[in-house]
Backbone:
């Protein structure tokens, strides 16, 4: 149990385009999901906390208009990187916190974004 | 300012021996600590956790120790196996009800056969 999927696993796009990444909890409901990014050989940096039915909470330094987050249901959160630039190239990982029964976040497999 | 630190970027251990991974933190408000294991190009996998009211938690080959006065926790893996080779992240949860995790920088463990 507690499986989280992400789609796509890998995406290459041109500079200036937008990319949407989906995060789904497959066998549990998650009121809260989190979006992280990881640069090579660095830690996971929390970008934002996504709450079902309400606006996301962004960490300091993360542009909310650039990284649009939607959490429309208890099993799906999406991250849209708008007007992507090469510096947005990174590994994006989501996690989900089960609504009940767990204290741990469960992570998706990640999405490798490359902006040309 | 790095609130959660893993000062050893890498560690090599012989198969069958003990692996000890260390983590230090600065925020006394953290109420829950976790260890995750991560392979390249994959998401982290939860290993073991410990509440701030405990000093030890054991699950099979994995034991986590918490020293609150020193703001230090460690993960012991006994016996170490080649399949344990991965990057290990410690994480701390802010106790404000946000369930936000702060991750350490990771330690790459290599278990030699």
Residues:
């Amino acid at each position: 149990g507690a499986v989280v999927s992400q789609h796509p696993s890998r995406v290459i796009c041109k500079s200036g385009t937008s990319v949407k990444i989906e995060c789904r909890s497959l066998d549990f409901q998650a009121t809260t999901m989190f979006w992280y990014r990881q640069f090579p050989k660095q830690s996971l940096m929390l970008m934002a906390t996504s709450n079902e039915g309400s606006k996301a909470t962004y960490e300091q330094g993360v542009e909310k208009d650039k990284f649009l987050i939607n959490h429309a249901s208890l099993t799906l959160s999406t991250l849209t990187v708008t007007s992507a630039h090469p510096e947005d190239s990174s590994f994006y990982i989501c996690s989900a916190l089960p609504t009940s029964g767990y204290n741990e976040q469960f992570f998706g497999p990640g999405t490798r974004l490359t902006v040309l | 300012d790095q609130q959660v630190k893993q000062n050893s970027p890498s560690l090599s251990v012989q198969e069958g021996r003990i692996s000890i991974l260390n983590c230090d933190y600065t925020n006394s408000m953290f109420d829950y600590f976790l260890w995750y294991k991560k392979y390249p190009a994959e998401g982290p996998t939860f290993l073991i956790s410990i509440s701030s009211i405990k000093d030890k938690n054991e699950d099979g080959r994995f034991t986590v120790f918490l020293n609150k006065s020193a703001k230090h926790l460690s993960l012991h893996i006994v016996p170490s196996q080649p399949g344990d080779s991965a990057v290990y992240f410690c994480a701390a949860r802010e106790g404000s009800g946000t369930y936000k995790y702060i991750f350490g920088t990771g330690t790459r463990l290599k278990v030699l056969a």
About this structure: Residues 88 and 115 of chain A are 7 Å apart (CA to CA). The radius of gyration of chain A is 13 Å. The mean pLDDT of chain A is 92. Chain A touches chain B at residues 4, 6, 32, 34, 42-46, 49, 91, 93, 95, 97, 103-110, 112 (CB under 8 Å).
